[in-house]
Amino acid sequence: xxxxxxxxLGLIAVSGLLMTSCVKEEDLVQVxxxxxxxxxxxxxxxxxxxxxxxIYSSMMIDGTYMRSTQMLLDLKDxxxxxxxxxxxxxxxxxxxxxxxxxxxxGWTYRDFYQxxxxxxxxxxNIEGIEFEDGALKNRILGQAHFLRGLYMFHMxxxxxxxxxxxxxxxxxxxxxxxxxxxxQVIADLQAAADLLPVSYDNVSGPDQGDTxxxxxxxxxxxxxxxxxxxxxxxxxRDTFKQVIDLGIYALVPNYADNFTTANENNSESxxxxxxxxxxxxxxxxxxxVPVASWSRTTARAITYxxxxxxxxxxxxxxxxxxxxxxxxxVDDEQDPRLNVTIAWNDPDGYQLYGHxxxxxxxxxxxxxxxxxxxxYQNSDGSRADEYDWRSGINERLMRYADVLLMYAETxxxxxxxxxxYTYIQMVRDRVNLPNLQDVKPGMSQAEMRDQIxxxxxxxxALEGHRFDDIRRWGWLEDPxxxxxxxxxxAEFDTYVAGREYFPIPQSEVDxxxxxxxxxxx
Length: 521
Known about the structure:
This protein has a domain at 303-326 and 339-395. The chain is mainly alpha-helical. The chain has a two-stranded antiparallel sheet. It has a two-stranded antiparallel ribbon with strand order 3-7. A two-stranded antiparallel sheet has the order 4-12. It contains 23 helices and twelve strands. Residues 1-23 have low confidence and may be disordered.
């Protein structure tokens, strides 16, 4: 990875009376004691904690989870479409991102490496600190491993073959294979799981009681996910079981509580990003060097918001809507996840930002009969719209429901299809769907695979999981599955092999010797 590091140095004036032969060049360049540098910063436990806090802040800028990462994860799947006038965004779902325009995907590449750089600063400097609290040191190291592993997870998942920097001692890092990238992700997440506490409630130190820090459960959940993505089903099964056996996570009764400010950091949340309208300033966090005036909010809401409440750069597909309508609850009602996920002209009424959907869009037949995104919107009437760009809703990156369904998948893949029913039904019970054992008893392994795909599609719509699932299941290489996807979402008509990954930013290819562009670009 090509990285520029700017260090501020002070020049000390030297009297003209001194003979130049008596002055060495290094005497002319000295560190300004009034300006903090990387060399002078890492001295105390508190400095190390600030260092790991800086890694977290990389989650809140435009290239990561302020906005761009959600779009890159969501727009390629069969549940989402984009009619955005911004070509860089609309082209994501059409598998047509251009190497001539690095907008969005290039920002993501840049900003996740910023987070990796910050994690490596911790690793490069922490051993030089004499800690008063060894347990705190372990927690800091565990968080640095977790965050570097999480950021690298995204890099290998988005860009395939990428550099895997483990230190900042050199500025240029060679491109690695995807297998090497995954190996480092797994190593970091395993190290994190070994070092992190189950919670911060009972630790002693300045991080006591902190909400939002990475935990053992978060590290194990992502470790299992990385193992699953590499088709190491037995290892993933055992890892997910460790998360379940912690006994501290449970599904919240109300599905909607996972996507609002009202019930953040709930029992279902394993790891989430702590956005807030009450923290920081009001300037948007577009990137570069952070400043105190930056907001700690997300632009997901305005980007995805329904027409006239935001930009409507993404919308649900009718395939997603129809899948929600394909099964009724035990009380013969529609799946309650539908209206949490999709805003539409529901005959039973639909409230949106204090307006009745049918009345608000009455003058525009196209919008009246269209579908819009409601998940992660401030649409409960407390806000008039999303045009200030500043949503405070926490992004739930890992939910317990995901662990349950991934565990069910590993059970199915390791020959325990019958046992998978139990964990799928836990997720179905929350939304009052019929017992799967009754409606689809004795499924084969292949049938269970398709059922799990259906369950995941509805449970995690617009949460950045579906396209990752499509790719890892090999559907893009299966002509029958690809044709099915094309019938559900016309954006798949423009898919060509290799475009399941984004291009390496051309600036990176140009500046890093030996870097090769991804196939298909």
